[in-house]
Amino acid sequence: MRNFVSEALNDTQLEEVECHKIILAVDEVCANMMIHSNGCNPSKKLDISIEHVPFKQLEFIIRDTGKYFDIKGYHEPSMQEIVSSKRKGGLGLILVKRIMDGIEFSTEKNYNICKLTKKLNFEV
Question: Hey, which of 6, 102, 113, 114 would disulfide with 62, CB 3.0 to 4.6 Å?
Fold first, then answer.
């Protein structure tokens, strides 16, 4: 997955640090979908596609057939809550939201879809 996303980012004019952030965000969503949506079942697969509108934006579409995640019902914990509860994890979506410009979850037929959007701010 990381190589696939990295190769797609080669076609952009993004700086290396920004590319690494995007790879991290996509990786985090994929990990969450495998763990929470698919119960770490190795027979379950994710489908990832990337749409690049030159100089405008990147869209990462990640699909699976696992359990649906309703982001509207998601309570974003504060750092205080995470630290005081001493729980492992909990920063993934916070990180993704800070890196990416958009995150949407939806369903279509038997698929759960996560669309991540990153705007490109380049002059044409």
Answer: 114
